[in-house]
Design goal:
It is built from nine helices and 20 strands. The protein has 416 residues and is an alpha/beta fold.
Amino acid sequence: MVLIEFWGGLGVIGGSKITIRDGGHRVMLDIGMDIPSGADLFRLPVRPRPGRELADRLRMGAAPRVPGLFDPAVLAEGDPLAAPAEPTSVFVSHPHIDHVGLAGWVRPETPVYAHTDAVDVLRALDASGQGLPGGDPDWRRLTAGEQVTVGPMRVECVPVDHDVPGASGYLVHTSGGTLAFTGDIRFHGRHPERSWAFADRAAACDVLVTEGTTLGWDMTGPVRTEDDVARDFAAALAETPGLVLLSLYPRDVERVHEFLALAKDAGRTVLWPARVAAFLRELGVADVAEGLPQGDPGGYVVVPDPDDLPALLDLPVGPGRPDSVFVHANGEPLGPFEPRWAPFTDWLAALSVPLRQIGCSGHATQDDLHVLLERTRPQVLFPIHTTAPTRLHPPTGTTRVIAQYGVAYGMDGREV
């Protein structure tokens, strides 16, 4: 019998972890760092204890107690999780911490797969000193359409559009039918054809597990696209006589390339923090510069380190320089839900630097999620990665199940 279990991503945005068990083998889809629904016990200024990072998280309920998944060397002495379980293979949908953050602690014999472009990002992060807690596993690369056999199951990699290279969904073909997993997906980015191709590939699947991030958001107003983001950044460059400061998520490599080109066209050089510059160089991004502006501030865009706000004092901004702007394009700190957001906005206010937010979402709109359901028409639907799963309304003939943590479900959606 095929069993489906959910170990994260329930009632929260992020932290996805799903296991599928069939014929004495186990597939795990995503292995993200847990995103708490309340206060994060491990947020700054808390510093993880070296060698105890996972053990402490497990003790405080901030990591999943999945039997036989983690390396016994990183568990507390006597933890029953160290006992081996059925052979397991892990498949990562994309290189965001809430989908891959625990991969460095899996058992050494457990293979960990991801799309080859995602592996490039993860290796570049590791090489620039920003790797996963516990170190990178021995990544196994996948290409579009490639299938991996895990016991009686076949796991198929299907690229989707998201805001990071290598984003993929997966089809898990089991002895009891096919489960489709979107990973994080959108249909309004630069490559909607990838996501619609996934929808077509997943058509008539037995089970669909989909992210539903935007279900809990107020979606009034037009949907912002990458074209809107590029247009607004170009406008900020043209309208600002002084320094432009920028918050940009470096893993969104496609946007990095676009912003570098727009800055060059505007006669400006983008200056990155050292660790970000190292990461981008590892990925082969050209014209990566760092340091402080020299000469006319109007010739530069500076990406400050979000963890070093006092370094803003080294820049030509402040109450006497009202000609600057801070452009926030989905970079860090990510938003008001982050503990770092309030200090960030306080520093900008104290320095009289206006904040202009120009980003667009990496997640499917509510309307597109419902179109996805109409095109796939699964027998069973599990909405995860959302604070509002009941707002995803299935079409006639589809059973929606609001999953519970650690409960086993059959392919018919019933608890086992």
